[in-house]
Amino acid sequence: MDTKVLMMNELNMDLNQLEEAAQIIRSGGLVAFPTETVYGLGANALDGKAIKRIYVAKGRPQDNPLIVHVASQDISDYVTEVTPEAIDLMNRFWPGPLTLLFKKSDLIPHDTTAGLPTVGLRMPDHPIALALIKQSGVPIAAPSANLSGKPSPTEATRCIEDLSGKVDCIIGGNASDVGLESTIVDCSTYPPCVLRPGGISLEELRMVIPNIIVDPHILSKQEDPNIIPKAPGMKYRHYAPKAPVMIVKLSELNLTVDRINERLQELMNEGKTVGILATDETKSLYQDGIIYSLGSRNNLKEIAKHLFEGLRKLDDQQVDVILSEGFQEEDIGLAIMNRLKKAAGYHMISE
Ligand code: TXA
Ligand code: MG
Fold first, then answer.
1. Which residue has the CA at smallest separation from atom 21 of ligand 1?
2. 143 C-alpha to center of ligand 1: Å?
């Protein structure tokens, strides 16, 4: 299949290009597009046949439901009940990196929700995404636009790398601002429950819903076979580069650096090429290896923005192993560590 690449300027969108992409969505095709979290791979959420094509293009397991993207808070066609808590969350965080789960209406096909009775809805905070949804005239189901299992794409070039030849169209824009996927909150049960940490932090959510609860699997240190995550997608080894990842998170930063340097030496003695996910504060302290700084430790948002691209950049350099510093699990740090732990298969040295 020929994949049409449309490069778009979000401040000055070409309306002909936008209509071309919208026409593809309306006729059952697949369009990758930028959002503020990560790039998404979109299809008409109301068209079961189009949805099936997303699963094929990504190599996505059939039991993993899709998030439906909307362009306003007028969601009454797609859900059967909107709780007061959901209204408060929409008012505070939409448009933005927050997905809410509702009981679905019959208009949403089972293919979109992988047979579940709930549907995840999100209004993205991105001019191209919003314009595409409006122009298409239908809600757009979109998982992250990576091949299943790989880190989510935060740059257009990564969508092209993963999906060229597999989808009808890729809209290229700037790098995604947030860099990690949306937070998912189940509003179909009471009290609402966080199923995936993401761009909106737990601290921010608690300001609106003080009694919000958290799916136990998010807080577990190890992969626990007895705790099955409620979001089906959270059970897969995810966000993973080709190279195995090990996280080091000791009580002091200098101990972490020393420990990474030690492991680096051992691996290099075995003839391995080692990638290091470092930070601006530590990048000059490593004795060798291919170093990628995620940004300053004083700015976790910057770390989040660069994490997936960092994993992909080290893969480009064909490293055999990736050693990563760990981060505090506060604010967006909870989502950063969630993605890192999944990339590492929970392989972590800590106290
Ligand atoms: O930021 C994002 O959310 C991005 C952009 C493109 O919007 N999308 C994204 O989609 O991350 P995806 O498919 O990569 O992740 C969706 C997650 C999966 O873990 C899936 O299992 C969960 O959402 N999910 C979707 N609908 C659900 C439902 N009804 N019940 C439980 N989990 C659901
Ligand atoms: Mg994904």
1. 233
2. 6
DSSP codes, 257-276: HHHHHHHHHHHHHTT--EEE
Closest atom, ligand 1, to C-alpha of 119: 29
Q: Report which of residues 288 and 219 the model is more confident about.
A: 288
Name the nearest CA neighbour of 140 among 233, 214, 29, 220: 29
CA atoms within 13 A on the CB side of 181: 24
User: How high is the pLDDT of residue 219?
Assistant: 86
Residue 66 CA: which ligand is closest? 1
What percent of the chain has a predicted confidence (pLDDT) above 70?
99
Q: Is the pLDDT of residue 237 over 80?
A: no
Q: Residue 296 carries which side chain, given as an amino acid letter?
A: S
Burial pattern 80-116, b for ≥16 Cβ within 10 A else e, equals eebbebbeebbeebbbbbbbbbbbbeeebbebbbbeb
Confidence at residue 179, expressed as pLDDT on a 0 to 100 scale:
98
Write phi, then psi, for 248 (nearest 5 degrees): -120, 125
